[in-house]
Amino acid sequence: MKNYVIESLPDYFKQYKKSIKNPKKFWDKIADENFVWYQRWEKVLKHDMSEAKIEWFLNAKLNITKNCIDRHLSSRGSKHAIIFEPNNPEEATQYITYQDLYDRVGKMANVLRAQGIGKGDRVCIYLPMIPELAVAMLACARIGAIHTVVFAGFSASAVAARITDCDCKLVITSDGSYRGDKKIDLKGIVDEALKTCPSIGKVLVVKRTGSAVTMQEGRDEWIAPLLDAAPVDNIPEIMDSEDPLFILYTSGSTGKPKGMMHSCAGYMVYTAYTFKNVFNYKENDIYWCTADIGWITGHSYIVYGPLLNGATTVIFEGVPSYPQPDRFWEVIEKHKVTQFYTAPTAIRALAKESTEWVEKHDLSSLKVIGSVGEPINDEAWHWYNDHVGRKTSPIVDTWWQTETGGILISPLPYITPTKPTYATLPLPGVQPVLMDDKRNEITGNQVTGNLCIRFPWPGIARTIWGDHQRYKETYFTAFPGKYFTGDGALRDEVGYYRITGRVDDVIIVSGHNLGTAPIEDSINEHPAVAESAIVGYPHDIKGNALYGFVILKESGEGRDRDNLRKEINQLISEQIGPIAKLDKIQFVSGLPKTRSGKIMRRILRKIAEGDFSNFGDISTLLNPEIVEEIKNEKL
Ligand code: PRX
């Protein structure tokens, strides 16, 4: 596995140097030695950053599912590909071997073909976290259809907007889904969405909850009898390296979501390579990522990355708090999970609970623990490190985006010394640069700036579906010749990167640039505080002033609010300076969050400004009801 596995820190530096000196040669070798191709490429890379045109492995032919499944059958046919842990711990775990997965994907591929779905057609998948979700994605990839997975928590209007944007022909959904002790009527949501989606000719329905559903004659069909009757054998579609593999929507600065399009070969090579190295995956490991497959993390690091490496990947249907707040720890113990990958928001929620929940379980199987999706604050990092990693399993704080396809900056476990809250070093092939607002590159260390990437890597999204101009304008024009991430970053004295948050979250107070993330970090260090978010609001003298929304821990709820406000500001004053003190602090019971756990600052900003009009579509929030509460209690 030369060129594929990074073995030590000197090896990392050696590989990194090679990858920068000659990126084409670097990726050429990795692609050549570790995957199966119908036809080799004629050229490794063709790119024009000014036009946002990037192509990798030109004219190569492949099918990603041959790499995810078929090639493992001879050596790993009876190995578990997927371990399915249901929402209800009383329900039996499903163990799906690579041979089972081959059979299930083959049948589903044949069912889709029988419905007239073929290469290039868009299929919307709106399913809960059940094995059929992964099987459906792989079946699409098998026949060259482009899957667009919509997180099964999005509202009917969000589903409809996505189906319409990419003109899907078919939807795969289920009767319902479980979420803790709740049942959600997914089919009803699809029915509602489809009232405005004339492009959909067929809906295939997986039975999961047994809830009563309405089946529209001629359009809706239960999938089980079709799968039972379908043959396994099929001929995979031969795909060009740059044919689309999937579209995944991400939110933009405007209300219209961006359909990020990823193509076959580059995405395959990049997710496989990064999975192997960032999680230090070894043959008999049991890997678990708690993200939903409806997000890029689930696409790349529950489905494609692990399966490309012949790994065992856990799919968890439930939530961390059901039936009790130790479900994550129970599942780790039950399946002897070796790699655990989750989000800071989950870590913070679990850290609010008594440590007895985590201490009750044997987590000694863990070798690597990961974090993704937002900056992890110091307190959460230490809690995760102390209680879950038990100071022996390194934390990989992985920085990346829907647009990047895979992880770009992360420690390599047991190789890169970790540093709390730092994503540390770029992976081979990734060339981060920090830029100032005048578009000059900031060189040297101990600096902060706008994070850009200088050179393409194979996993980068190729376009926004149907709107290449928007792709170009959003990512390639602010800093010409470079990919602009929209994030700010700090490079420390040894060259480690720390992501400081979206640059659009910067607030200028009395002429000083203040990042929301470091202020929130200090607030969160207050022992009574569970979580916080700050935004700017107009101020006569300072230009902007800071408004803090703060969730208290249970232990802090009885405290005098005015004293708490003073203590929080004292803490900020000590850690950042008096300039960063908050003018207003509102105690709230929750913060408006996207389904992936990100705080919707846009809404908080409007509330802080006293502008209660036009919040936009809040139905896609995790907790839309909180908006009303915060609004009513505004200071
Ligand atoms: O701001 C960064 C933050 O999440 C953004 C990307 O969000 P999304 O496309 O939804 O993908 C999330 C999963 C990859 C980034 O621009 N972000 C992601 N990971 C980190 C992070 N911020 C800090 N540290 C991270 N590890």
* CATH architectural arrangement of the domain at 505-632: 2-Layer Sandwich
Q: What is the 3D shape?
A: globular
Beta-sheet strand percentage?
15-25%
Say which molecules are bound, naming each kind only once: adenosine-5'-monophosphate-propyl ester
Distance between the termini: 60 Å
SS-based structural class?
A: alpha/beta
Gyration radius (Cα, Å) is 24 Å
Describe it.
This protein is an alpha/beta fold and 635 residues long. Among the domains are: 280-397, Rossmann fold, CATH 3.40.50.980; 505-632, GMP Synthetase, Chain A, domain 3. Helix content is 31%, strand content 24%. It contains 20 helices and 31 strands. A 7-stranded mixed beta sheet has the order 5-4-17-16-18-19-20, with helices on both faces. β29 (529-539) and β30 (543-552) form a beta hairpin. α5 crosses α6 and α7 (156-166) packs across α8. The longest helix is centred in the first third of the chain and has 17 residues, at 98-114. The chain is globular and about 70 Å long. The chain starts with 8 loop residues before the first helix and ends with a helix. It binds adenosine-5'-monophosphate-propyl ester. Residues 250, 296-297, 371-375, 397-402, 423, 485-487, 499, 502, 596 line the site of adenosine-5'-monophosphate-propyl ester (PRX). Adenosine-5'-monophosphate-propyl ester (PRX) is lined by residues 250, 296-297, 371-375, 397-402, 423, 485-487, 499, 502, 596.
